[in-house]
Amino acid sequence: MKKSIWLVFLVVFLSCRQEPVKTYTLRDDVSFLASDSLKGRETGTANELMAAGYLAERMENLGISPAGKADTYFQTFTFKPKKDPHQEIQYVEASDSTITGTNVIGFIDNKAENTIILGAHYDHLGMGGQGSLHRGEAAIHNGADDNASGVAVLLQLAQKLKKSELKGNNYLIMAFSGEEIGLLGSNYFAKNPTVDLEDVNYMINMDMVGRLRDSKVLSVSGTGTAPIWPQVLNSTNQDFELVLKESGVGPSDHTSFYLQDIPVLHFFTGQHEDYHKPTDDAEKLNYEGMEKITSYIMEVITELNDDEKLAFKKTKNESEEVPRFKVAMGVIPDYLYDGEGMRIDGVSEEKPAQRAGLQKGDVVVQMGDSTVTDMMSYMRALSVFEEGDSTSVVIDRNGEKITVQITF
Question: What global pTM score does this model have?
Answer without folding.
Answer: 0.85
